[in-house]
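Many introductory courses stop at the sequence. We go one step further.
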Amino acid sequence: MTDDVWLIVGLGNPGPTYAGTRHNIGYLVVDELARRMGGSLKSHKSGRAEVLEGRLAPPGAPAPKVILGRARGYMNESGGPVSTLAKFYGVAPDHVIAVHDELDIDFGTLRIKFGGGDNGHNGLKSMRSSLGTGDFFRVRAGIGRPPGRQNPADFVLGNYSTVERKELPFQIDSAADAIECLIEKGLEETQQRFNR
């Protein structure tokens, strides 16, 4: 295992049906990081994921190697592809960053943490099972609780409201900034700057 490679995984569901849903915030953040790296994700030879290799730094600046990834399967099966990528690139779980939606955090808010439970999140549950540990970083993008008695499963698979869509680019940008900070400065400084 190498210490200077990071695997950043955006959790979500593939295909146009899910593209704009709350559950796919992880995909959107990885897309923003790919844009910053000047590339786009391509199929990994395993066929189970899409990846982009590069560095999150200006050209020539020293920075660790970063692998951006997203599974080609559904959220509840994310773990297998993530584990495959971690093994392929020699990345230990403590250098894996999962970006995902979080019901228990208000929309527009971020929380960055290391380890912990999966809080009923099927993507995290699958990752914990496949990696054999929950000791990886999480960038938790708040989506808030569903209004009234709406089923949480319907809510996370629903599209953002018109008001939320106006704010969403700021949340995506902030999550991407937090990941850059986490890799460069570590957890404590990132939490101080981004956990609200």
